[in-house]
Amino acid sequence: MAAHGSPRGSPRVHDLCPSLDSTKSPNDRNSYRLIRLDSGVEALLISSSDENKQKSACACSVQAGSFSDPMKCQGLAHYCEHMVFLGSKRYPGESQFEEFLSENGGESNAYTECEYTCLYFEVNRKALHQALHMFAELLHEPLFTPDASSRELQAIESEFQKKRRSDRVRAETLFASFASQGHPWRIFGWGNLQSLDADPKAQGIDLHAELGEFFRHHYKACRMRLSVFGVESLDSLESAVANAFSVIPPSFGEQLDFASHGLPLHSKDLPRLVRVRPISDGHVLWMSWQLPSQLGHYQSKPASYLSSLIGDEGHGSILSLLKDRGWATDLTAGAGGDNFTNSSNSMIFSVEITLTVNGLTNWTEVATTVFQYLDVLKGDLPSYLYEEKKQMAECSFRFLQEKDPGDMVIDMSERMLPLYKHQADHLLTGPWMYADFREDLVRSILTSLSARGCFFMLMSSSYGRAGGLEPTDATTTSDSQQGDDEARGVDPGFAELAGCKPQVEPYFGTEYWDCRIEDTTLSRWETLNAMEKMHVPPPNQFIATDFSILKQNVEKEEELACRPSIYTGFPSIQRLLPSPQCLEDVRAGLKLWHVPCAAHFKQPRSQVSVKMHSPYYALDANNVRKGVLLELYILCFNDSLNEMLYAAGKARLHCAVSSSPTHGLTIRAGGFSQKLLCLVESTLRARKLEEYATRFDRFQAMHEALLRSYKNEWLKPQVHCSDLRKLLLMPSMPRPAMKEAQLSTCGSEQLMDFAQNFNSEMGCELLVSGNTPKDTFLDWATAVFDGYTLAPQTKVEVDVVQLPVGSATVWMQTAVDTTQSNSAVEIYFQLPGRDAWHWQEDQARVRVLLALLEDVMYESLFDELRTKQQLGYSVGCSLRDSFGVPGLRLRI
Ligand SMILES: [Zn+2]
């Protein structure tokens, strides 16, 4: 450990890892230094010398999260996180820090995890030193004024009311409520008025005193991990950090220990099956297992290897087999990146399966498929799949893509926490490390994924829905004497619960039934034969081997010279990239654009966009039925590509098909350039859904999924409210109920007809940017579109209402979910003119001014409506582009 005096005589700092900078990616132009101040604060300094960069950023992770909440004040860590930013002794204004950031192009935010709290800000680079001072003062002596305290409690309550309507949060909280007595999982970390105000008051506890005590006890130098990004030298950053944080008194030792709490669930409570009522329409099965913490294995990542096998979507995978039977539409596997599923006391490994109605009826068979696959893995854990992961991680690291400064400092300050166990010289490389294939560790996880150690959760709208919303997919045999509380589901096991009232989770009010699993079922899951079709993924064909980068075209470079602005007094404009070049003399109806810019980004990657403009659809875009069929078509198209795209994704290639109301269909693809065009070609080949025609179960599952998404579309007040605005502006936009009605009368025949007509004639436009040579692109496109009937198409304009000047329209609607306690309001201002969004400088003016207005307004809007008046938890303003018509929206 080298110690050296700081240039300005501020406190001494210690360099914790002099070799750190040599571990960075060859593509990384930043410099790094890891230091510890005498006080015990550790900081990672990230210096950029790129004069084009405007933003600096800083994050501080403090080792104190909701696991540290006292039982008498649950939610205190979260509450403390909200309070810290509201004024310090040195800078007492409640919004002084926020105003300073806003005046300097920045903003702040924070979040509370189980074992830590992360607070961060971004600001223009020239204001970094002052912002660091203000930030350090907040972390040293926040004011915690009584006035702000009571208002911020309301913000916590609003946040809770919002989260309360999230099925995912409800499921997680319910799961945590099954933890053993005394385990920190049982703490209600969100907090609300009940847990932070009413309960403490009833016990004569002074919340304000508790808050002060919590802060003094936990926000200490030795618990702080800081990461700072600045466009200045490392020495300059070092002295800025040392000076600003010299206000925080030294403290040492005393790390938190949550590992000793051990696994959250008592083994006698497993296996367990819990059936849950959701808010949304849908059916989900979670199978979850608790394992000892895996954070110490970041170098070999056994859990990540295993989750990529179980979560595989290619041929022979669990999902592929479930889809073939029409039982599921989605599957994810593994532990999340969050601190709840990956903590110092446990890792929660889950398989989450989105079921169809048929899948719900056969859910025990769905689980059987999972256990069968786990059995296959016990016999076959191929090391080539590990090598593939390693190879792709190395490529991603070698050609590291630049990250936003804010995201970068957050990631780094988290990774520095002792909880994540990273060696100092692995701080920059940790996420990309696949040191060696530890089959022993993988097997030990695999052994834990047993039927008897599993926590099953079934969430289904056939059990009824939260707050009395109509159940869906429930069989309507009302011959029994039970009240409507016991709607019979299509899940056969649920019928046996007839007459049983659900239990209620106390904080979120989630209704559930704690059920038994038959011993015969468990034994069946333990003695299985693997299905023939099941197998681990074969070697991946999409993995790139050629990473050479195209040279920059010299004549293109001339284009990058500075051009004077057309506005007097404005600086001249430096173009970063050459403009796209339209390749001449291709076929009529086929337009090709090319931008070679790989050398600029030093990346062997390309991006491809394909616009397919079909007159069959576009000239009739207001036809609700065609609109619905297009959405169904896109959904099935993506589904038919899924097995291929999943493998491509593992090779860092992505490709997705989406619908567009102006022309029809867009394909966007990107990634390492070598095999990218080949992927787009295979995608295009599947466009007529020929394979899909014979797969009726799959069609049925997609049809069901789309119907469900229409039913859930307006459940969230904010989405409903935004859609009302869109309806005012574009009356031709169909409401979810209209789409639902049309879709229920569309079968697979209609879909196949649509696919055929859609593809019978079209105009195509392609843009390729990055590392693909012009000639390669031209030859490829000529060959691929050879068999297409192509014709030039004219752009179809979507009608947008011009709002009358001098009058206002108010539209009010009751929430779809009438038990909802949240409301949403939007105020929209329309600007005159259309097509003001092109990127020529004279036309970009409106957009720039609106963006500026958004920036100027945001801080005071938030401060007034959220912080002062406490009218709602999420408040914001943003510019809107309604098919070329500019506008500004305020929302709460
Ligand atoms: Zn919060």
Automatic annotation (TrEMBL):
Pfam families: Peptidase_M16, Peptidase_M16_C, Peptidase_M16_M. Gene3D superfamilies: Metalloenzyme, LuxS/M16 peptidase-like. It comes from Symbiodinium natans. The lineage of its organism: Eukaryota, Sar, Alveolata, Dinophyceae, Suessiales. One of its GO terms (molecular function) is metal ion binding. Its cofactor is Zn(2+). Signal peptide: none annotated. This is Nrdc protein. One of its GO terms (biological process) is proteolysis. It comes from the Eukaryota. Residues 1-28, 468-488 are annotated as: Disordered. Transmembrane segments: none annotated. Residues 46-167 form the Peptidase M16 N-terminal domain. Belongs to the peptidase M16 family. Keywords: Hydrolase, Metal-binding, Metalloprotease, Protease, Zinc. Residues 210-391, 749-882 form the Peptidase M16 C-terminal domain. Residues 397-733 form the Peptidase M16 middle/third domain.
